[in-house]
Amino acid sequence: MHKRYGERTIYDGLDFQVRRRERWCVMGINGAGKSTLLKLIAGASEPDSGTVTRGPSVKMGYFAQHAMELLEAERTVLQSLEDSFPQAGQAALRALAGCFGFSGDEIEKKCRVLSGGEKARLVMAKMLFDPPNFLVLDEPTNHLDIATKQMLVEALSRFEGAMLFVSHDRHFLAALSNRVLELTPEGPHLYGGGYTEYVERTGQEAPGLRT
Ligand SMILES: Nc1ncnc2c1ncn2[C@@H]1O[C@H](COP(=O)(O)OP(=O)(O)OP(=O)(O)O)[C@@H](O)[C@H]1O
Fold first, then answer.
1. Which amino acid residue places its CA nearest to atom 29 of ligand 1?
2. Gap from CA of 91 to ligand 1 centroid (Å)
């Protein structure tokens, strides 16, 4: 596919495939087009030419920072889950909230008072309730505290579907990736091993690593 913003070419004939059980981390400097790729794959943006094709049984879950801004301010955590899953029983939704760290009265908190980490947890609870088999995650650990991040890494390491993600967290990259897609000015570089092997082989860490 081809994608440009005004004069700026982001992809000039990118050809890339994610197969079952592959877990791709997408690396590149600021502005390399990481988030754009995830948006294109998730259908949140369209290529100028070329196509994005999803397998017939693919059920995608997409996490992006803007999803946190879309939570309705005056709805509580529980109401927000009920709005997303009107068919689900209260007990199931309370259990779901509990799994994502909302205990006791916390499910009565309105979305407008939630911290960044709490919003991220609520968005993830919604994304994972009806499990997808392909996760597209744009910096999912940005607002998470260490305990929640660890919980997410453990949960995702048991996830059997495919993944494509952008992260600046070394532990997240190392624990979860088995493929590396590097977006460079010369074009994409595909690497058939995970992040740890990539670092061992190239001697380079991901640009913009935070930990
Ligand atoms: N809607 C848009 N209109 C114009 N330019 C855009 C738009 N979205 C992204 N860009 C530009 O396209 C380039 C790629 O953006 P993208 O967000 O994909 O980069 P990224 O690799 O995810 O960067 P970062 O690491 O900073 O998050 C950037 O230069 C960005 O400013």
1. 31
2. 41
Q: What is the pTM of this model?
A: 0.91
Question: Looking at the domain assignment, is residue 39 inside a domain?
Answer: yes
From the number of C-beta atoms within 10 Å of its C-beta (0-12, 13-18, 19+), residue 80 rates as buried
Write down which residue in 113, 142, 177 finishes a domain.
113
**Residue nearest (by alpha carbon) to ligand 1 atom 9:** 36
Ligand 1 atom at shortest distance from the alpha carbon of 168: 25
* Residues 172-209 as b or e (16 or more Cβ within 10 Å = b): bbbbbbbbbbbbeeeebeebeebbeebbeeeeeebeee
**Residue 209 pLDDT > 90:** no
For residues 65 and 84, membership in a common domain is answered with no
Do 139 and 61 lie in one domain? The reply is yes
Q: Is residue 25 part of a domain?
A: yes
Of 9, 25, 35, the residue with max ligand 1 atoms within 8 A of its CB, to mutate for a pocket test, comes to: 35
What is the CB < 6 Å shell around ligand 1? 5, 10, 28, 30-36
- 159 with 180, same domain? yes
Q: What ipTM did this prediction achieve?
A: 0.94
pLDDT in tens, 21-74: 999 999 999 999 999 999 999 999 999 999 999 999 999 999 998 888 889 999
Q: What are 106-136's pLDDT values in tens digits? A: 999 999 999 999 999 999 999 988 889 999 9
